[in-house]
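Re: the 203-residue chain
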Amino acid sequence: MSTRTRKASTTRKVLGSLGVLGATAAVAGLGTFGTFTDSTTPISTDVASGTVKINLANPGAAIPASTTNFVPGDAMTRAVTLTNTGTSALSTVTLGTTATVSSVLNTDANGLKLTVRSCTVPWTQAGTATAPTYTCGGTVTDFGTTPVVSNRTLAGLNSLTAGGTDHLTFTISLPETAGNDLQGKSSTLSLVFTGTQRAAGAR
């Protein structure tokens, strides 16, 4: 009688162990199934950056320009051609003027002034090599007159577009209101055109 009890107990223990092993095998099998996948063909995308480049040429009287013995009412004009030789449009073109050698000529309220104009066609030069004059056979845009040392945006230029060209003149003048304290002075001026890329956006 005691022998049958021991056998039954042994049988239950074996079955219990098999049950545990079976559960383990079922858990291990959860990650063994195959998965079907598919991919699209590659999309070829080329991205090339644009270039921002402007070029300044001198079509007439020599630049750099120098003049002496300026008196109130005198003016000096020179022509330049500004071209967008890059591949990108520009948002702005600015003209900045600094005095690398400064004097009361460029600091006084009645000191030197700067006027910028554009013509829809190349300017026609007359006068002399040292004192040229310019006339426009097309339409003139006047960008106004400021103190000679200034920074201004030249709105509406053709050179805002890649390949665009502008025919410009700049005139440096001494107003008739200039006082005696401006006699015998000298300034050296640097004029720089700066092009800034168009606003970035979706392409």
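The longest strand covers residues 90-101.
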